[in-house]
Prior knowledge:
about 5% strand; two-stranded parallel sheet; two-stranded parallel ribbon; about 260 residues; elongated; mainly alpha
Amino acid sequence: xxxxxxxxxxxxxxxxxxxxxxxxxxxxxxxxxxxxxxxxxxxxxxxxxxxxxxxxxxxxxxxxxxxxxxxxxxxxxxxxxxxxxxxxxxxxxxxxxxxxxxxxxxxxxxxxxxxxxxxxxxxxxxxxxxxxxxxxxxxxxxxxxxxxxxxxxxxxxxxxxxxxxxxxxxxxxxxxxxxxxxxxxxxxxxxxxxxxxxxxxxxxxxxxxxxxxxxxxxxxxxxxxxxxxxxxxxxxxxxxxxxxxxxxxxxxxxxxxxxx
Length: 260
């Protein structure tokens, strides 16, 4: 068993306790976000999709109106290029949201026993290679990579992965010749204050605060109704924009189609 040597840090136990609490809150926030997306993700995607459709139509109207003001015909290729450029960031966000929704749907809910096993293994690994505990981690690409994988496995409650990572961590430490972990944190009281602030920020902001919504069936129902109403409003607005575009076209906007 590797030996952990604590040097000049009477506040270490408090520091370690707060690190564990912060990391546990980060994990819970991650899990609440997954649960939020499972509950509301499909409706959120529908709303965002109709929103970007409306933005696309407004950009098209903007392009048409600029051509009218100049007295020029609308170049269809130029319009397509303009819309593609203007909508690229919205499209990227939409694709990211789809990936997050799929990930949330596929996330596995495990037993409380296995959750405790994950937590226990995580704490053992954290004592060895948590970057805020072992400064040697930041100087090792291998340990940094392993730590990042451990965090993901911990947040996702991936028992098999974190069990395998525990073996890999110990092997890496052995290969690097690290048999004793010396812990010397001279500014530990300042770090404790910083972690307390981080804990406060996590507990008072989204996605951690989603738990209040998710634990109340009435609030869940209200949220779904609100999203449905927003979807209806944007659908109606999209139809209005279609009417504006039709009006511009019927009012004399001419389109140039480039032949390839």
